[in-house]
Structure formats: structure tokens, C-alpha cells
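Problem 12. The chain below contains 149 residues. Write out its predicted structure in C-alpha cell notation.
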Amino acid sequence: MELRAFGKPISTYFKYFLALCLVAGTFNVSFAQAGTVTGKVTDANNAPLASVTVKIKGRQGAGVFTDTAGVFKINAATGDVLQFSYVGYQNNEVKVGNENNLNVMMVASSATTLNDVVVIGYGTVRRKDLTGAVANIKGSDIKAQGVAM
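Solution.
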């Protein structure tokens, strides 16, 4: 006795199911494989760098920081570009390939690029609401120091 469904033998539906699985598996292989990429960020002396920003280029909100050992973990797909940035170092970009473990070396910036950072403070706040450090400098103190121009 042969099992039938909707007037056709069950073996026919099984063949359709196998063909569908084969096609679905082919599509899955053709797309980039997403996974966890781990790695370590170091300086030129192979010392780990903590708090380096690691982001996926072109994707908002997909970023992490390295821990105190310079290690990071981020979900990225093959072909994604990881951007590494850290104050005092040149930005670095690494394309994710088939490897899940990356070692990234950051190169220190030249001293001239540090002139791009400017800190400006102004405004008023009550002392009880203040967090951080504040210094008061009078004009007469600056004149007494003899500032060079």
C-alpha cells in the first residue's frame, strides 16, 4: 500500500522537500558568513592598548572597546571593514576575512597632529552640581608667569 497526499505519492513531496533544502543551502553559502571576530590591539612595542574603539565601517551603533588586555570581541561578517581609533594613534582599518582572530598594531601619531585638539571651557555651574576639576587663574597670575608669544 502506497501513502498518498493530495492525490500524489508521499515520495514525490519528499523529493520536493530535498530540492528545496538544496536550494536554501546554496543561498546560505553565497551570503557573507556573520560571526564573532576577536582580536588583540597592541602598540609598536607589543604592549596591549585598553579602550581602543573598534567599529564596523558604515554601520551605526556597532562598536566595542578593547579591555585592559587589549582584547576585543565584535559581531562582524566576512568582508566587513573594522575601524580602530585611539587618541594619540593613527586610525587603522582591517578587512574581515576568513580568520576569526585578528592582531592589530596601532602606530603612534606624530606630535604635529596633536595640535588639532583644543579644549575650551566656559559657562557657570553651582559648586554642589560640579563634577571634575576646576582651576581659577587670574590675569595677574598669567602676567607674572611671562607667557611667550
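Discussion. Residues 1-31 form one domain. Students who got a different answer should revisit the alignment rule from Section 12.3.
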